[in-house]
Amino acid sequence: MSVIERLSGMEILDSRGRPTVKARCELASGVVAEASVPSGASTGRAEARELRDGDQKRYAGLGCRKAAANIGGEIAANLRGREIESQRELDQLMVLVDATDDKRRLGANAILAVSIAFARAVARERDVPLYLHFSDILSKEGVSHPDPTLPRLTINLFSGGKHAGGQVPIQDVLLVPASARTIDDGLAMVVAVYQAAARIALSKYGMRALTADEGGLAPDFPNAEAMLEDAVAAIEAAGLRPGADVALAVDVASSQFATGADGAAWKYQLGNRLLDSSAMIDVVAGWVERFPIVSVEDALAEEDWAHWPALRQKISARAIVLGDDLLCTNVLRIAKAVELNAANALLLKVNQIGTLTEAAAAYRAARAAGWRVTISARSGETEDDWLADLAVGWGGDQIKVGSVTHSERLAKYNRLLEIERETSWPVVKWPA
Asked: What is the pLDDT of residue 207?
């Protein structure tokens, strides 16, 4: 049982130079902990809502002073001095105080910052590593993973879409160090491929190693196929075997170039091609057949429910069908996807739902369906490294943080290296 003595919040800047929120939690025991939360660029319609100031004269309306003030104001007023028995109790209290269906009143950014800061403070109070405390939180939600492992890396190589100015519609091509048996080996392999890709970008496109939001290289690819071809060429140029040593993952982020509505036909503007849903599935299936792709994220729009089952049926023998915008770390959307056989993997982003407890419920639902789980960062990140502990503590199959160039990404990778040194746990055996 822990007692919150004081809560405070402040506005800070994320990796894109946009405001986000940091929370500070002080317990009666004298323990103090802070947590910073990320923000996404490619966001699903079902996500919990950040609170932004709306003052167009300051950060184009994106300021977070109101959200930060809510931490030290209304949230603190309802939590200060209260004996908190569990993470679930804390999170449920904040949800009740907010009293909206999407946390828009107090702000999902404010609520999540307190949720994580409290978890970190309790871990310090218990004198246990944060990843073990996260594991205990999950166990209390009815989920256990008896064989501790480290997540398989999935690391951005090339970026397009909203992460890179839209020079190519699809959002990211990522590297999966498939033959690596440690985080250390995986990072070394990826860095070698990234450096080879930078040389290809210079010789083929005349582009220096300029990077997108999450650190991926962003040459002026003529189309998505060129993006994938160059990824394979970079793997080979690094002296590695495509598929065997390094596989690929693709974040299509189709909602960003799709048009349609419930009950109407969806259309996908993939470069100069306007495709219906079936044709879009055929294109993605062709990529999976041609390239060493082991994971495909959001290959269809988030509300194109009618066609997700066909997508899964067509590609799941070769690649996991990963839902991000489709699922929004939301148990109701996961339940619908399970019922329809629409996906077989969850991209878990805690700030999509707004508290650790609700994210744990989404994790539990995905695991109950036999799905894989990828623990993911956002395009707007901070130097806080709690996500690495979460991915380990919750037994994520994969972790998706970004590339190997920006400090807000490297903070998570370096934390994984620390955890690997402390535990000597193996990396998940995926792809098998």
From this structure: 81
Cβ-count burial 350-362 (b if 16+ within 10 Å, e if not):
bbbbbbbbbbbbb
Name which of 269, 258, 154, 268 is nearest 216 in CA terms: 154
Question: What is the distance between the alpha carbons of residues 22 and 11, in angstroms, rounded to a whole number?
Answer: 6
pLDDT(186) > 90: yes
Strand partners, 296: 250, 321
- Tell me which residue has tokens 């109101």: 66
Please classify residue 289 by burial: count the beta carbons closer than 10 Å to its beta carbon, then call 0-12 exposed, 13-18 middle and 19+ buried: exposed
pLDDT digits (tens, 9 = 90+) for 142-183: 887 768 999 999 999 999 887 667 788 999 999 999 999 999
Place of tokens 């690929």: 248
Determine contact, residues 186/180, Cβ cutoff 8 Å.
yes
C-alpha–C-alpha distance, residues 262 and 258, integer Å:
13
Q: 3-state class of 370 per DSSP? A: coil
Which burial class, exposed, middle or buried, applies to 321 when counting CB atoms under 10 A from its CB (0-12, 13-18, 19+)?
buried
- The model carries a pTM of 0.95
* Inter-CA distances, 214 with 10, 210, 376, 378, 400, Å: 24, 11, 12, 8, 10
List the beta bridge partners of residue 13.
Answer: 19
- Residue pair 344/373 in contact (Cβ under 8 Å)? The answer is no
- Active-site positions read 214, 349
> 80: exposed, middle or buried (C-beta count within 10 Å: 0-12, 13-18, 19+)?
middle
- From CA 34, how far away is CA 372, in angstroms rounded? 30
Query: Of 417, 420, 400, which Cα lies nearest the Cα of 409?
Result: 400
**32-36 sheet: strands from edge to edge:** 32-36, 19-27, 2-13, 83-84
Q: How far apart are CA 355 and CA 92, in angstroms?
A: 9
Q: For 330-357, what is the mean pLDDT?
A: 97
Reading phi first (left if > 0) and then psi (alpha if -120 to 50, else beta), residue 102 is in alpha
Query: What are the C-alpha distances in Å from 273 to residues 163, 253, 265, 268?
Result: 21, 16, 16, 8
| φ, ψ of residue 361 in degrees (nearest 5) | -65, -40
H or E stretch including 177?
Answer: none
DSSP state of 102: S
Task: Please say if the pLDDT value at position 42 is more than 60.
Answer: no
* CA distance linking residue 429 with residue 423, whole number of Å: 17
The whole-number pLDDT of residue 214 equals 82
